[in-house]
Design a protein that fits this description.
This protein has helices at about 5-20, 35-50, 95-105; strands at about 25, 55-60, 70, 85-90. It is an alpha/beta fold. The protein has a single domain (about 5-100), classed as HAD superfamily/HAD-like (Rossmann fold), CATH 3.40.50. The longest helix has 13 residues, at about 5-20.
Length: about 110
């Protein structure tokens, strides 16, 4: 089992799966917060750099994205209608990034 801190684990999982898979970051930007979108992009650039370049999608309709997995801690913004598998982060099955990593490594 691999054990990592929350932020490091998040970054590690994204980097690990970016090259063999087509990984995108989906997020929702609150409508009334005019800096939220740029703040999210700044965070991605700071922590992921070129790994995530042009791989960020800001949307209130995550169900429009096509893919095998969607990792999200909520059911809002179309997550509950996503056609692939929703990995519900923070639930008993996926309590942390270590659980997500171990699941994805055994899923294929």
């Amino acid at each position: 089992m691999i054990i990592l801190s929350l932020l490091l684990a998040c970054i590690f999982v994204i980097i690990l799966f970016t090259y063999p898979y087509d990984v995108y970051i989906l997020s929702t930007s609150p409508w009334d917060n005019i800096t939220a979108a740029s703040d999210k992009i700044a965070w991605v650039k700071k922590y992921l750099g070129d790994v995530a370049k042009k791989r960020v999608i800001l949307t209130h309709h995550k169900n429009l994205a096509k893919g095998d997995y969607l990792i999200d801690d909520r059911l809002k913004h179309g997550v509950d209608k996503f056609e692939g598998e929703h990995i519900h982060f923070g639930t008993d099955k996926f309590q942390n990034w270590n659980d997500v990593l171990n699941y994805l490594l055994t899923a294929e």
